[in-house]
Design goal:
The longest helix has 28 residues, at 146-173. By secondary structure, the chain is an all-alpha fold. It has helices spanning 3-26, 34-47, 58-81, 96-108, 115-129, 132-141, 146-173, 178-200. 71% of the residues lie in helices and 0% in strands. GO terms for molecular function: ER retention sequence binding.
């Protein structure tokens, strides 16, 4: 494992912790897209079906379990414990328009036409667009709390670091995975406008606002 992947993993973990702390401390999930979290739950479930059949390392197994447990716990907080604070009126992105194309693409372009491999590929494609409901929600409300902005920034940095990881692996291991690379680039591009606003506003103590 190289430093870019390690930093990417911990950036991803940091994003999850930031979101959980935000919800737990404020006792509210206002401003959080339950649909984006639901998409990430689908992503991790499909990707980590091999958790008990294919052992890579203790680190790998522990991180998979953390991602799964923390994401489903976040869903519980949003849709059960603090559901009265969930803003359904603004979390209206049609996620079927993300799930169905990702599923079709996974059937058409994958490394191997097997159940686990197709589901893994589906998770890669779906993850590349899973943040769209959250960004859509921010654009509808017109602004995001600072802590929500930190969560989004950490997720964006995670994907950027993974692109560096793929570049590093190409030059050191002669390994290239076009499915992961293209999906990662798509996901990073979706964050570009947010990154600019985060750097120019949030880091200067202002509340982030996205154009409607």
């Amino acid at each position: 494992m190289n430093i870019f992947r390690l930093l990417g993993d911990f950036s991803h973990l940091g994003a999850i912790i930031i979101l959980l702390l935000k919800i737990w401390k404020t006792r509210s999930c206002a401003g959080v897209s339950g649909k984006s979290v639901l998409l990430y739950a689908i992503v991790f479930t499909c990707r980590y079906l091999d958790l008990f059949t294919h052992y890579v390392s203790l680190y790998n197994s522990v991180m998979k379990i953390i991602y799964l447990v923390s994401t489903y716990f976040t869903l519980y907080l949003i849709y059960r414990k603090f559901k009265a604070t969930y803003d359904r009126n603004h979390d209206t992105f049609r996620i079927e328009f993300l799930i169905l194309p990702s599923a079709v693409l996974a059937l058409l372009w994958n490394h191997e036409f097997s159940v686990l491999e197709v589901l893994w590929t589906f998770s890669i494609y779906l993850e590349s667009v899973a943040i769209l409901p959250q960004l859509f929600m921010v654009s509808k409300t017109g602004e995001a709390e600072t802590i929500t902005s930190h969560y989004l920034f950490a997720l964006g940095i995670y994907r950027f670091l993974y692109i560096l990881n793929w570049i590093y692996r190409y030059y050191t291991e002669n390994f290239i995975d076009w499915i992961s690379i293209i999906s990662g680039i798509v996901q990073t591009v979706l964050y570009c406008d947010f990154f600019y606003l985060y750097i120019t506003k949030v880091l200067k103590g202002k509340k982030l606002s996205l154009p409607a």
